């Protein structure tokens, strides 16, 4: 049975706005998970494109780590993605 996260972050922005698209992953990986909060990310609409490796490699927001790094950190922290 799949565990239900305490915090579910919804992402709906795709790669055309790299800063806004990266924020949910940054909050999950560098905020919630590091604070010990079980969290997940729900991907809707254009945000579903972000998990494609070739797309993630090109997403670099302003003042936020590159999306590929954030995705790797999410994976290392067992953050679940819901599509």
What would you say this structure looks like, in words?
It is a single chain. With 83 residues, this protein is an alpha/beta fold. It has one domain (7-20, 38-82). It is 35% helix and 16% strand. The protein has 3 helices and 3 strands, in the order βαβααβ. It has a 3-stranded parallel beta sheet with strand order 1-2-3, with helices on one face. β1, α1 (18-32) and β2 (39-43) form a beta-alpha-beta unit. α1 runs parallel beside α3 (67-76). The mean pLDDT is 95.
Summarize the entry for a quick read.
By secondary structure, the protein is an alpha/beta fold.
- The fraction of residues in strands falls at 15-25%
* Total discrete domains: 1
By helix and strand content, what is the structural category? alpha/beta
Give the number of helices.
3
Cross-sheet strand order for the largest sheet: 1-2-3
What is the N-to-C succession of helices and strands?
EHEHHE
Low-confidence runs of at least 5 consecutive residues: none
- Largest beta sheet, briefly? 3 strands, parallel
């Amino acid at each position: 049975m799949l565990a239900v996260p305490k915090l579910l972050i919804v992402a709906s922005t795709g790669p055309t706005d790299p800063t806004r698209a990266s924020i949910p992953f940054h909050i999950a990986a560098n905020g919630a998970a590091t604070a010990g909060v079980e969290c997940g990310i729900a991907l809707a609409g254009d945000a579903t494109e972000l998990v494609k490796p070739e797309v993630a490699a090109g997403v670099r927001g302003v003042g936020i780590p590159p999306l590929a790094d954030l995705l790797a950190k999410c994976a290392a922290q067992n953050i679940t993605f819901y599509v």
